[in-house]
Amino acid sequence: MTAKIDVKSPKPIADKADLSKAWNQVTDYFESTLQWFQLHWVEVLIGLAVAVLLYVILSAIKRFGARYVRSNDDLTGYRVILGNSNPATIMTDPEMADATYIEPITPAVVEKIIAKERPDALLPTMGGQTGLNTALALADSGALNRYGVELIGAQRSAIEMAEDRKLFREAMDRIGLENPRATIIAAPKLANGRYDIAAGVAQAVEALADIGLPAIIRPAYTLGGTGGGVAYNRDDYEGIVRAGLDASPVAQVLIDESLLGWKEYEMEVVRDRADNAIIVCSIENVDPMGVHTGDSITVAPALTLTDREYQRMRNGSIAVLREIGVETGGSNVQWAINPEDGRMVVIEMNPRVSRSSALASKATGFPIAKIAAKLAVGYTLDELDNDITKVTPASFEPSIDYVVTKIPRFAFEKFPGAKPDLTTAMKSVGEVMAIGRSFHESLQKALASMENGLTGLDDIAIEGAAEQGRPAVIAALSRQTPDRIRIIAEAMRFGLGDDDIQRVTSFDPWFLSRIREIVDAEHRVRKNGLPTDAQALRGLKMMGFTDARLATLTGRAESDIRRARAQAGIRPVFKRIDTCAAEFEAQTPYMYSTYEAPAMGDAECESRPTGARKVVILGGGPNRIGQGIEFDYCCCHACFALTDAGYETIMVNCNPETVSTDYDTSDRLYFEPLTLEHVLEILRIEQENGTLHGVIVQFGGQTPLKLAHALAAEGIPILGTTPDAIDLAEDRERFQDLLNRLDLRQPINGIASSDAQAIAIAERIGFPLVIRPSYVLGGRAMEIVRDMDHLKRYITEAVTVSGRNPVLLDSYLSGAIEVDVDALSDGETVHVAGIMEHIEEAGVHSGDSACSLPPHTLDAATIAELKRQTTAMARALRVVGLMNVQFAIKDGEIFVLEVNPRASRTVPFVAKATDSAIASIAARLMAGEPMSHFPERAPYPEGVGPEDDLPFADPLTLADPITPWFSVKEAVLPFARFPGVDTLLGPEMRSTGEVMGWDRNFPRAFLKAQLGAGVALPHDGRVFISVKDADKTDAMAQAARDLVAMGFALTATSGTADFLASQGVESTRVNKVYEGRPNIVDRLKDGEIAMVLNTTEGVQAIADSRDIRSVALYDKIPYFTTAAGSIAAVAAIRSREEGEVGVRSLQA
């Protein structure tokens, strides 16, 4: 197409006389102007200066004025009061708020905090569903009005409209957004205040004709979809509705039409009072609808939306916030799209920062929670700076030029009997996040981050594929399991086409095409070997293939691949997260690695290492059972303490749920997998400038410890306790030799590396015994073995877990008291920081047992001996930093169970209980400071307790572990998420969190800990007692007497009833499960039992009592499965006679 140009005729030029006249007029004007300026130049300059100054002032008022009227950038000017029951989080450190209350988050307790502190406002949108539900209850009870407290972040009406399924549907109808076809079932309330669940189920059955099957059941006001699910038949439907009504605090469920196979999306939205609203991040679920978004692999930004779909979803999300009435802060809106016809429906919204807010924050660099908090107190987005760029306001909508992949981490292996099937109820215990320039790279980096042995899209065996062929592969694809993406890749290797896989899985064809490209590249490597030309090898690395995966595909060693890559000059470059797709330069060093083809010179690396003296801290990777946020807490303290000591701190981690991966926790952050390949590349780039003082591997649990030897072999300095000393403590034979030299006792034991050895050792030791694999965390595969048949069944699995490492068989110290001791050491001087007595006896994993600091039954001589033995072991191992020792005490004898010369999961609890920042002190010791830099605190005054005001001590001082108050840690167990799993505690850890209660004595602290864990100990009613013979003790009889004295009635099985009668305690007899009807389970189901005290042993007895524990769990009846726990619970109930529990801040 040719452009037309209009050529116009020139105008005639004026004559020369006219031009001369005009020129004279111009020169006269300039001469007169110059004369005026010579006379008035001072006034002109003053005027200009005033104008500039006015401009600067007006600009400052416009941008920053409101900020300084209210407060400065850190919200100084506000007194911040924090309430949380979790000691493992960094947020409950006393330095994080003006007043920190580690108290149960219940309406009654929070009201006491409000009465004491008299705050102006309550911010409930940061504490997930727990915070939101508690705030609503306080509003409903009138507590907020009584104390003049304003709800900020989200108003009560907005919370109710978003959380109440009926109100939310009506709101969506008003703004023309479609919901799935659905009905809402609310169980009616009975006269006694309980909900009639049976009537609710009957309503749901009537509604089935309209909804049809399959149907999706979503309980109201619950976290992680608890109690919900997908019903494919009538029996499932009734069961899930009943569970959902039980789980919902208002006995309400939403029953949706099936959206199975639809595409699912989330929009993270932030809005302020001025109605500025931005989409921080769009997130797409790789798994189709039917899997809870927390259990789904997700990507950011959304990759398969058309631009029109994205704009509709964006506008709809903002409209939802406006209609619901979320005035300020972050919210999450979930959508579904039918891939067949493009029908778009809104599923739900959370009027708070949600689990995915952390992911969106880390994915974009936009700190949603921080901004939401400031918006809640009145800022607007345009008044707040973007921390990353330093030049754009927070109202600048983030944009990213990379792909983020999140993969959840599961722990089904910890729950025998639980099916590893994913549903609308969340079951994951953690997650990883990875960043790459393509989906291929991001996905494979995420898989390599999982800490379960994966190096990428590793091969996976499909059961029955060899014999049945294609039908077995189709059957595997049809199940929604944690390994589904690997099953898809395996199906491709098997020969199935993308269309066949899409029909079975409903995965979007775009994702399947990308997975196919990875599988095809693998095939070429398997066939042709490692590429010899640099371009082809770089191409594989750009697709995210790790050196370890390439080694597997080529049959070579990982070190060979690393050398070949280095010789070819193929190294990753590091890019910065900048929130704006490189439109502005990032000022914060928050980085990820990628492989880039050189264009017009070398590929650009944005790492720019400084010339500082550096310490690298390796994090713990994904949260999982046995390795949770306690280790993140330690890593954060290492960053804070070493930054204060003058080091540049460099954090490496891949977990978006952690504070250690906040861009402002360390000086430099690498969001990378914790594999040897990725860590070495980071260290290589950091060593290009400055001095690497060392690497800390002891704060991230087992994850970085596995890298210690390989890093040391590469010449990397490891700070703190040497890898060899850590190995000595883990190696059962070497450790046994050390204890013999120190004249310390272990339970009778032996070491076996074969079936025959194990059987011979068992015959020598006798049963019961505990079998323990080496180098595992969280008691993985640890078990109490009660007879030879059990041992023969088990030994193969135990040896497999440890690979070529031997296993230790210990005599099981039945009824022993277990004690945890945490200590600090600089290699010579040792300080015992905490002594914790377990409530549950030895045999229950320390992570699942409640514990008391200080010990509540041990005498001073025993405590002194525990300190002596701990000191001896710390010196012998030359520990520098933290050390944890587990002891068992039986009949006055002290036995050493194990030693961990590293940070343990008890560190945050000890720090909160003693007001001493032991992780910070440990980091400084590891960096080379002596213990003498940290003075011992003066002894506590005689007779003081929690009610007495004590000056808040310097956290960097050494505290006496025998405090004048009691702190109790209680485990939080996720059994409700795993139907069919027995709740009996054992040597393998299964808790996913913890709470803390503290008060003037042990029973009251235990009472608070139970409250924090969601266990409401009864005030009256009937208590069921059934205990094994070994637990029929004077202490148990006294507990029964106490219950009767407090007005409780007792029900007992025949053997226990006889025992109680012999002790002068009356009880009503009830049948065991196998003794006929009506039995104890019937009494439980009829609501006659207020609390269960049931201890048991032996395979048959455990099986017989399983139904008791199951009904107690699902009917929310408090139950205790150990004698010590039962006795402590009775003491806690009795402590109510001392008056209502009080609240006290850590700083008071």
Describe the protein's architecture and organization.
The protein is of the alpha/beta class and 1148 residues long. The protein is built from 38 helices and 37 strands. A seven-stranded antiparallel sheet has the order 13-12-9-10-11-14-15, with helices on both faces. Helix 21 links the parallel strand 18 and strand 19. It is globular. The protein starts with 15 loop residues before the first helix and ends in a 14-residue tail after the last helix. The N terminus is likely disordered.
Give a summary of the structure in a few sentences.
This protein is of the alpha/beta class and 1148 residues long.
Radius of gyration: 33 Å
Could you give the count of β-strands? Answer: 37
Mean pLDDT: 87
Helix count equals 38
The portion of residues forming beta strands comes to: 15-25%
The major sheet is characterized as: 7 strands, antiparallel
From the helix content, strand content and strand pairing, which structural class follows? alpha/beta
Contiguous runs where pLDDT drops below 50 for at least 5 residues = 1-14, 54-73
* Strand numbers in spatial order across the main sheet: 13-12-9-10-11-14-15
Shape: globular
Q: What is the end-to-end distance? A: 81 Å
Percentage of residues assigned to helices = 25-40%
Task: Fill in the keyword field for this structure.
1148 residues; alpha/beta; seven-stranded antiparallel sheet; 37 strands; disordered N terminus
